[in-house]
Amino acid sequence: MKEEEEMVTPGEVLGKGTEVKAGKGAYLSPHNNTVYAALTGRRSVAPPSPESPDQRPTVEVIGHKAHGPVPEPGCVVIARVTKVMARMASADIMCVGSKSVREKFSGVIRQQDVRATEIDKVDMHSSFRPGDIVKASVISLGDARAYYLSTAQNELGVVSAESMAGGTMVPVSWTEMQCPLTGQIEQRKVAKVGA
Amino acid sequence: MEYVSPEGLRLDGRRPMEMRQLRAELGAVSRADGSAVFEMGNTKVIAAVYGPREVQNRSQQINDKALIRCEYTMANFSTGDRMRKPKGDRRSTEISLVIRQTMEACIMTHLMPRSQIDIFVQVLQADGGTRSACINAATLALADAGIPMCDLVTSCSAGYLNSTPLLDLNYVEDSARGPDVTVGILPKLDKVTLLQMDAKLPMDIFENVMQLATEGCKAVANYIREVLLENTKQLENRRGV
User: Fold this and answer.
1) Strand pairing of B115-125 and B67-74?
2) Pairing between strand A147-150 and A170-171?
3) Among A63-67, A184-188, B69-73, B75-79, the least confident range
4) H-helix or E-strand spanning residue B214
């Protein structure tokens, strides 16, 4: 794939705009039509795909710092419920896919996004409790405050929850979890884990 | 007072066009996303960069580019006589603003909309030219954080004492109250992002002094590039690429 590799620092010339395309970590300066590096790292040149109309190779700079994962629409996240209100529950996102996030992202699960059926009859308080660990998918970037999350799939919902007595509850059905210490049954929107 | 001896030597033994020794180290603050220590002779500055991260104060959020914030502080042990109230004075507010504007000119803010980048610089030892040292340290820290920049900004100062242009003034020369020109440039793009002078100079002399400072910036840029490349190579070796 890669033709040649060498280290570059920001501001170094990578090629002419007519000969190469700027990929990640590189930019095209419009006033002299030259491609410069924007990061410190290795330069790599990838040939264009054979069917694309633009036959210039793409030049990229691969930096050494990995940034933390950021939730994006469609991905599955693990979140901890912080507050349950009548029409929505707010949660802090802890993992995106299998990676833990570096900074705080907040999400909300609205009443209509808790389950797929009878969405207007959902009682938030019998779906989540503060402290529950929830598996959810990101619907959209949401408003300025929080990502919109959804648990409207069988595999999504509460994956781990503590009972009133303080024990980690065991799922009984898709709406109930039972405490192993007291045998008390609590209502949750339970995720179907495994199988 | 005589700042350049008849033999052509300055008070600290340098030639008029000689810079102080440079030293730089990356990754000085482990919690930060990027950090650097930068020394110009006895001036020593530490910089830390956090971000790009979510904007803390929503009302400051900019929808099409990143918000850059910068805070400059001087440690109270940094000067000869211990400082009493170091925070929030006029001088540091002004330098914070200068550093922020200089860094904003090189960071590609449009790539990171609705996010914020914090730059913290602290002077550990002050011996003249803290402004330039802070900008150089901030550049290194930004490069260490992997934040896209159109070029590395570098800065250097130059003065004019005893009818001689002097490169990279130290504290004693700075206190002579002569003209002090601080220049910040984008070396590969050949653009000026910062130019400050708090005195009057005839045009032709000013041009010479500025030319000298620009040459200094280029020397700093070469050094910074070397440090960055060396650091990247070390990281790769450790990773075993």
Assistant:
1) parallel
2) unpaired
3) A63-67
4) helix B203-239
Does the pLDDT at position A2 exceed 60?
no
ipTM higher than threshold 0.90: no
Residue ranges of A 60-79 with Cβ closer than 8 A to chain B: 63-65, 67
Q: How far is B147 from chain A (nearest CA, A)?
A: 7
Tell whether A12 is covered by a domain: yes
Contact A158, A172 (CB under 8 A): no
Contact indicator for A87, A108 with CB cutoff of 8 Å: no
In terms of C-beta density within 10 A (0-12 exposed, 13-18 middle, 19 or more buried), how is residue B124 classed?
Answer: middle
In this structure, are A56 and A80 located in the same domain? no
Peptide bond preceding B86: is omega within 30 degrees of 0, i.e. cis?
no
**pLDDT tens-digit series, residues A140-167:** 888 877 899 999 999 999 999 998 888 8
- Do A10 and B151 meet the contact criterion of CB atoms below 8 Å apart? yes
Number of separate domains in chain A = 2
Segments forming the whole domain that contains residue A47: 7-63
Of A12, A27, A39, the CB nearest to B188: A12
- In tens, the pLDDT along A71-119 reads 889 999 999 999 999 999 999 999 998 888 887 889 999 999 998 888 8
The answer to whether residues A20 and A35 touch, using CB atoms and an 8 Å cutoff, is yes
CB B233 to CB A10 under 8 A?
no
Cβ–Cβ gap A65/B34 under 8 Å? yes
Rg (CA), chain B: 18
Strand-pair partners of B123: B45, B74
Q: Is residue B29, in this structure, part of any structural domain at all?
A: yes
- Residue-wise pLDDT tens digits, B142-176: 999 989 999 999 999 999 999 999 999 999 999 99
In the prediction, which pLDDT does A51 show? Answer: 82
**Residue A194 placed within a domain:** no
* CB within 8 Å: A11 and B186: yes
Q: Do A38 and B108 touch (CB under 8 A)?
A: yes
Q: What are the residues whose beta carbons fall under 8 Å from the beta carbon of B228, sequence distance 6 or more? A: A9, A40, B26, B140, B143, B144
Amino acid symbol at A29: S
In three-state secondary structure terms, B49 is strand
Q: What is the mean pLDDT of residues B84-101?
A: 86
Whether A58 shows a pLDDT value over 80: the answer reads yes
Tell me: pLDDT of B206 over 90.
yes
Cβ A27–B150 below 8 Å, yes or no?
yes
